[in-house]
Amino acid sequence: MEDRILLGHGSGGKLMYQLIREHFMPKFGMKSLNDSAVLKGITKGKIAFTTDSYVVSPIFFPGGNIGELAVYGTVNDLAMVGAKPLYITSGLILEEGFPLNDLKKILTAMSKAAETAGVKIVAGDTKVVNKGKADGIFINTSGVGVIDEGIEISPSRVKPGDKVILSGPIGNHGVSIMAERNGLSFNPPVISDTAPLNGLVREMLKKTKKIHALRDPTRGGLATTLKEIATDSGYCILIEENLIPVPPGVRGACELLGLDPLYIANEGILSAIVSSDVAELVLKTMQKHPLGKEARFIGEVQKSPVGMVLLKTAIGGTRIIEMLSGDQLPRIC
Amino acid sequence: MEDRILLGHGSGGKLMYQLIREHFMPKFGMKSLNDSAVLKGITKGKIAFTTDSYVVSPIFFPGGNIGELAVYGTVNDLAMVGAKPLYITSGLILEEGFPLNDLKKILTAMSKAAETAGVKIVAGDTKVVNKGKADGIFINTSGVGVIDEGIEISPSRVKPGDKVILSGPIGNHGVSIMAERNGLSFNPPVISDTAPLNGLVREMLKKTKKIHALRDPTRGGLATTLKEIATDSGYCILIEENLIPVPPGVRGACELLGLDPLYIANEGILSAIVSSDVAELVLKTMQKHPLGKEARFIGEVQKSPVGMVLLKTAIGGTRIIEMLSGDQLPRIC
């Protein structure tokens, strides 16, 4: 086999079958080549279904690569509606000439990530486009999961008095990508936080169903995520700058480059809006999980001003938080 | 709003929400912006799950565009395992500078195609990459459907004596793309056959469960598809060249360009391998459906030579049919 991807690898013929049989099927534990997978074990509860395409640049970055990012990102989208992620598909678009070794590394990362997150990659598709018509590799992952009876996570359940919990420090993913892209290095180094959040969410839901909203602050960062919840719920979210953990490396990078950590993408943290009577219980549960060790309260929900996010700043003022405008960091995931 | 796609449209912020709220949500009939859709109405039967990325070039071609191709292609993958397609996701990768008007046309085509096929587009994702890092637009669609009890369509059910039915003429999609790409025109014109096959399959399955294998011969064409079935079943498929309908335009184009119509991609036909005792019934049922009007027997399954596809040629010889090798027609879907 060639050591680079050829157009013929996407033609539907011999080369493609060879590629799939030698590299995809063993890695993903697939037994047959049907275009559609037949899923088993979904008999009760509601089903969640999601999709995400990954175009991150560079494809290898401190803490991971596009492969695990694609698996964890879709796992996390399912977890954020309270679903147990079960099945994932892998849709690859490769640029002619893409090194086969890089593809192998990425498939290995996808395979390990699926194992870590407890999901199965059940169907896939691979297309190849001419050199110069894509940027190495783009990956789409779609996912299916089940939501147990009684779980309903939706901004419409958010109420005044609810507490806002953040599971960990912000900004690591976005800054790690940006540093890699621009050849910058920070001390201490900034590593992407890419991780599957379904285990953490499962522990939280074991304790209570009073989790009203969950979001992983990816593109657009924590600010955009909270603004979405505030808009959809019709209430105000008040957060305190002093309570939001920003690692030194992220803070340094943001100061240097004039960025706001609230708008930087994350790939392994979540914000939860929970009923105040269970807030302490949820927080303690999160802190016992490796991905929630640094979980803390960062604010609460108020009745008004409607649909707004307010930030109490470190120096005592109040700032209105809007969605990200423009393109602070393109191709971050 | 700008009349071209900007990097900011993929940033997760304001511009992206504006794009989604103004263009995607009304077209796809979506009410909320959650990353994961919660599916309803799946309570019994097995679930089928599939994914496909579409990178066709050009994106507009005689008979359709990348939008309906993306919806019908995934609908067809589900139909080929006997599933009733229900839900589709839409993952778009846009190149910076892509004309908004083209995007609108494509979204309209996706919306109409979903309606025609009877599926709902329930979740989506949109990424934007820098100019020169993609080719206008790539679309991933993933799909979920349900397979009723008692339906099992799999090459492992194929047996010697089974009949091979082809639902319509071959080569239209591939030749229409190639003609458009190269500025060729044929008389009569060749139009892509892109169409949803789930309705046709439903009629067939209403009559009998003895449909052993179903495939839509897309990339790699009828030849590659039948070779896959022969390999997986461990039997021989014998087809007759004289029985395979090749439209005059397709034949002309293939002669001109030295291509073999058996390897040209199709997007609206299927081949079915059915038990001989129900073969006439299935054929007549197909012929009553608009997409099966020209359905006919093209061959049968034999015990040996194991895993091979043999073609009785028009001049009386026998040719061994292999999978497509190389890249006869890249980016055909």
Q: What labels would you give this structure?
A:
30% helix; 8 helices; seven-stranded mixed sheet; homodimer; alpha+beta
What can be said about this structure in brief?
Two copies of one chain form a homodimer. With 333 residues, chain A is α+β, with helices and mostly antiparallel strands. Chain A is built from eight helices and 14 strands.
Which pair has the most extensive contact?
A-B, 82 and 82 residues
CATH superfamily of the largest domain in chain A: PurM-like C-terminal domain
CATH topology of the largest domain in chain A: Phosphoribosyl-aminoimidazole Synthetase, Chain A, domain 2
* Count of helical stretches of chain A: 8
Strand content of chain A: 15-25%
Output the helix-strand order of chain A: HEEEEHEHEEEHHEHEHEHEEE
Please tell me the total number of domains of chain A.
2
Overall structural class of chain A, as computed from helix and strand content, comes to: alpha+beta
Radius of gyration of chain A, in Å, reads 21 Å
So what's the overall shape of chain A? globular
CATH architecture tag of the largest domain in chain A: Alpha-Beta Complex
Are there runs of chain A of 5+ residues with pLDDT below 50, and where? none
Mean pLDDT across all residues of chain A, rounded?
Answer: 93
Which percent range fits the helix content of chain A? 25-40%
